[in-house]
Amino acid sequence: MDARSSPESSLELARLKSLPQIAARRRERGCPNNKPHNKPLDRAQRVSVTISGFVTDAKQAKRFFVAGSVQGVGFRYYTQGIAERLRLSGYVRNLEDGRVEAYAVGTPEQLAELRSALQRGPRFASVSEVNEEPAAADPQYANEFIITHNA
User: Fold this and answer.
1) How far apart, in whole angstroms, are the C-alpha atoms of residue 88 and residue 86?
2) Does 50 reside within a domain?
3) Mean pLDDT of 89-100
4) How many domains does the chain fold into?
5) Do 109 and 76 belong together in one domain?
6) Cα separations (Å) of 11 from 14, 24, 87?
7) Could you tell me if 104 and 140 lie in one domain?
8) Residues 134 and 77 reside in one and the same domain
9) In the annotation, is 94 catalytic?
């Protein structure tokens, strides 16, 4: 996770964006120079917020088997690019029977998007079928999405 997308930086960005609004509200309530007031807030003034990014959907692992004209057309590079854009980890490789296997770890939504992209394939591929099956999480592929050697 890079610094721009960390929960701490998201909170800091939200705090910085809200500072002008806070200052305006304080001025409206008669708090000069943005000095905080010491009056306790009544129930109508209390604010409830939801912070996203701290609780994530449970990740799961899946294995996808793509059949058709999928070798020699850049399918592995295409899959790696999609997986990196979706922030998935795992691998993609050619199989000896002419299919491509993709192993990916991510949220159900991310995996559904990957499956959709695999069904489309790159420009010169012709996908006839995409099968998927649940897989065990492999810590070896927890941090990045790579292209591996043939099976």
Assistant:
1) 6
2) no
3) 96
4) 2
5) yes
6) 5, 20, 21
7) yes
8) yes
9) yes
pTM beyond cutoff 0.70: no
Residue 54: inside a domain, yes or no? no
What is the rounded average pLDDT for all residues in the chain? 79
Could you give the 3-state DSSP secondary structure of residue 97? Answer: coil
76 part of the active site = yes
Domain region containing 105: 60-147
pLDDT digit string, tens, across residues 46-62: 555 444 443 346 899 99
Q: Both tokens of residue 74?
A: 């850049």
For 101-110, write each residue's pLDDT tens digit.
999 999 999 9
Q: For residues 85 and 124, state if they share a domain.
A: yes
Q: Which of 76, 87, 120, 150 is catalytic?
A: 76
Name the β-bridge partners of 60.
106
Which of 85, 94, 123, 150 is catalytic? The answer is 94
